[in-house]
Every structure is written in C-alpha cells, then in structure tokens.
Write a structure and sequence with these properties.
Number of strands of chain A: 0
Strand content of chain B: under 5%
Helix content of chain B: over 70%
Number of domains of chain A: 1
Order of helices and strands of chain B: HHHHHHH
Oligomer: heterodimer
Order of helices and strands of chain A: HHHHHHHHHH
Largest interface: A-B, 27 and 28 residues
Distance between the termini of chain A: 23 Å
Structural class of chain A: mainly alpha
Number of helices of chain B: 7
Largest sheet of chain B: none
Number of strands of chain B: 0
Structural class of chain B: mainly alpha
Chain lengths: 219, 246
C-alpha cells in the first residue's frame, strides 16, 4: 500500500474545507457566535454560565460536525472522485479516515484552541481549561468519526442533512457523557479514560464502516 | 438447527411454514397475553412495595422492555447474516423487524412513563438509565427505517441498513455503560430499586407467561410483515415479466 493517495486525500480535504468560505474564520465565527448567544439565551449569572457554557459548546461542536460532513462524501460522489478513490491502491477506509481527520482539523480543532478564551468568558475555573481542551479535542474527533459514518451511509441521498443527524446523534451520546464529565472532574477521574477509550473505539470501528458505506455509494 | 435455518432461507419453504406459523402464533399469543392480563388485573394482590395497584402495569411494561432489546438484537443478527451470507430472507427479516421494534420501544417508553408518574411523580426522568437506553434504542430503530426509506434501490437499502444496524449494535453496550455512569452521578428520587424483594411466584408466573404471549404476538407480526414483503417482491417480478414480455 502506498502512502501517496492518503497524503493527497488529506491535502485535498483540507483545501476543500479551507476554500469552502472564509477559511478558518468560518468555524471560529460559528463557535464564537454560539458562545455569544449563550448568555442572552440563558442569563448572565456567573454560576449559570460556568455550568451551562461548556454544554452549549458541546452542542456547537456536534452541530459543526454534522454541518461540515453533510457535503463531504456527497461532493466526492457527484464529481466522480469517489469512483477514483475506490480504485486507488490505498484502502478506501483509510482515505475516508484521512478526509474525516482533515475536516476535523479545520472545523473541530479551532474550538479546542479557543477553549481558554471561552473559558474566561464563561467564568469557568482556570484549572479546568486543560481538561476541557482535551475533552473538546477527543470528543470532537469522535463526533466527526461517527458523523463520517452517517455521512458515508447517506452519501447518495439527495438531501441527507437531517438523515445524517438522525443516524449520528444517538452514537454521540457516550462521548458527550464522558466528555462532559471530563470537563467537570478533570484528568484524575476515570471519565477521562472512558472518553479516551470511546475515541479509540471510534477510531477502530468507524473507518471500516465508512469504507463499506462508500464502496456501496460508488457502486 | 443449522439445517432448519437453511431450509427456511428458501422463500417458498418460508411461505409454506409461515402460512401455519402466523395464525398459530397470533392465537396462542393472544390467549397467553389475555391470561396474563386477567391475572395482572384481577388475581394478583397489589404490592405495597412497588406502589400498590400501579405495579399491575409491570405485566405489560416489563415484557415490552425485554422485547425491544430482543428485537434490536434480532435486527443486528439478521443484518449480520445478510451481510456475510447474503440470504435474501435475512434482509426481509431485518426490514420487517424495524417498524415492530420502533413501535415496541415507543410502547415501552409510554407504559414506563405512566408507571413513572405514579411512582416517581413525574412522567419523564432524564437520570434513569433504563429510560435513556430505551430512548436511544428508539432513535436507532427510527434512523434505520429512515435510512432504508431514503435509499433508492432495495439492494443499496439492504447494504446500508445492514452496516448501520451492525454499527448500532456494537455501540449499544457503550451507550448502556455511559448512561449507567451518568445515572449513577444523579441519584434520582426514589427510583425503583433493583435489589427489592425477589419477585414472588404469584407475580413471576403471570409475568413470564405474559412475556411469552407478547413474544409470540411480536413474532407473528414480524412474520406477517415478512410474508407481505415476499408477496410484494413476487408481484414486482410478475409485473416486470408482463411488461417485459409485452
């Protein structure tokens, strides 16, 4: 197996995500816009904000994964790229994993990098900033992996957006539970290990499922 | 056992077998279900520990909870069999199980919430791990049906559905585990305790008979849907032949 197709698919996916609008400004604007609405929707009392703020960012992360992934495999199917991926010497599941990682790095990672800023805005105690960054990073990655499975399954469906959400959201639940606990309890608690385990589980199970689903869509 | 399944994998033999199996399962299931309801409503003494008369709902609610787990397992096994061996009948079974499973999870949530209102004082409790597990199961069934409905050909619906059902099935233990952890942190108000007094025989027998009756009814419904699907495929083939032959 050669590495070149994998590398190419990564570069292609990053450029796709980057050129999809204003580059990194788009996800940053999305997360910041969500963060801006939270105090107005739920009240600005500091204790309310520090309780609710991380939860709203989890929702924003889940939405970002669904919105981003809706078009990823569909575009490949329509412009014929998928037929070429299927014939590449590299396994289609690795290509799908690479594309998912590329989109996560553009649309999910910005939230991790901005977490200290949001933490300040939401009066979250400073010592929970690092656990929160780890939780948003691992949790976002898992969201994108399961969302990728749902997106690959509905690649040939004309307007698959709502379908992707219905397929993927139940699979987000364990990550959301462990991730939310990690933000609260930090690295000492077992919640962080469970979050890590569920991310590894998704890394093992999601790529073959994406591969099988994409091969179906290419037929 | 293996021989029996390979015999049934032939649609014609399946039609021959289910022609008698469906009415027998319906009638036997109805009799057992009616008997368990009669026991539950008139014969069994009210149990003060479980909140008096409301525990009579157990004889409908608990079998429905067992059955929706069993139906999802059946969906996953049928999908697996279809994915590996491409037995057409396995896909027909998976397709038939989904709506029955969705209906049963909804029934389980509805009866559970009536019980919850009487014992916990609320229709819905986000902290109860059993409610959450069944709710996720409900969404898994809905997603499966929506995906199949959205895909154009039967073949692609079968393949995508099988992948989704297997992905769902490997995730169910993780979901169950995470929901249990979640619930263990939020001790809800007076949740029915699992370590309560062991169920006395006077309750256990109607419960098991009711489970058997509802199980037979569910099997009969799934078999009916499978027969309808096979007939509709045969009708499609006849129509295609007629149109093709001129």
């Amino acid at each position: 197996m050669r590495a070149a197709p994998i590398r190419r698919s990564f570069v292609q996916a990053v450029m796709e995500a980057w050129s999809g609008g204003a580059g990194l400004l788009l996800p940053v604007g999305f997360f910041s816009g969500t963060a801006m609405l939270v105090p107005f929707a739920l009240g600005s009392a500091p204790d309310v904000l520090s309780d609710i703020g991380p939860g709203m960012l989890w929702l924003a992360l889940a939405l970002a994964s669904l919105v981003t992934l809706e078009r990823v495999f569909q575009a490949d199917l329509h412009d014929g790229a998928l037929d070429l991926w299927v014939q590449e010497p590299a396994a289609i599941s690795l290509v799908a994993l690479t594309k998912t990682l590329a989109h996560w790095s553009v649309s999910g990672l910005p939230l991790v990098l901005l977490t200290p800023l949001y933490g300040l805005m939401f009066q979250v105690p400073p010592e929970t900033t690092l656990p929160a960054m780890a939780a948003f990073g691992l949790g976002g990655l898992t969201f994108f992996l399961w969302g990728g499975v749902a997106a690959a399954l509905s690649a040939s469906v004309a307007r698959g957006g709502l379908l992707i959400a219905l397929l993927a959201l139940p699979l987000y639940l364990p990550t959301l539970i462990f991730g939310g606990l990690t933000v609260k309890t930090g690295f000492e608690d077992s919640a962080f290990l469970f979050l890590l385990a569920s991310t590894l589980f998704a890394l093992g199970v999601a790529p073959p499922a994406m591969g099988a689903a994409l091969r179906l869509a290419a037929d | 056992m293996g021989h029996m399944w390979s015999v049934l994998a032939n649609p014609h033999r399946f039609l021959g077998f289910s022609r008698y199996a469906v009415p027998s399962a319906y009638s036997l299931g109805l009799i057992l279900f009616a008997w368990s309801l009669y026991q539950a409503l008139w014969r069994v003494p009210p149990d003060e520990f479980q909140g008096g008369d409301i525990m009579r709902g157990m004889f409908v609610h608990v079998p429905s909870a067992w059955l929706c787990m069993g139906l999802y397992l059946g969906l996953a096994v049928a999908s697996f069999v279809w994915f590996i061996w491409r037995h057409e009948l396995a896909d027909v079974a998976a397709r038939a199980i989904a709506p029955v499973g969705a209906a049963y999870t909804a029934l389980c949530l509805a009866t559970g919430s009536v019980w919850g209102k009487a014992t916990w004082g609320t229709w819905w409790l986000w902290d109860d791990p059993r409610i959450m597990s069944v709710l996720v199961l409900f969404f898994l069934f809905l997603g499966y049906m929506a995906l199949r409905a959205a895909l154009e050909t039967r073949q692609s619906a079968a393949r995508a559905g099988a992948i989704l059902a297997m992905i769902g099935a490997v995730n169910v233990p993780l979901i169950k585990f995470s929901v249990d952890i979640w619930a263990s942190l939020h001790q809800g108000p007076s949740v029915i305790r699992a370590e309560g007094p062991a169920l006395a025989a006077v309750y256990l027998h109607p419960l098991l008979i009711g489970f058997l009756g509802q199980g037979l009814l569910v099997s009969a419904m799934v078999l009916t849907l499978m027969r309808a699907e096979i007939f509709s495929q045969q009708a499609d083939r006849l129509m295609a032949r007629r149109l093709g032959g001129g």
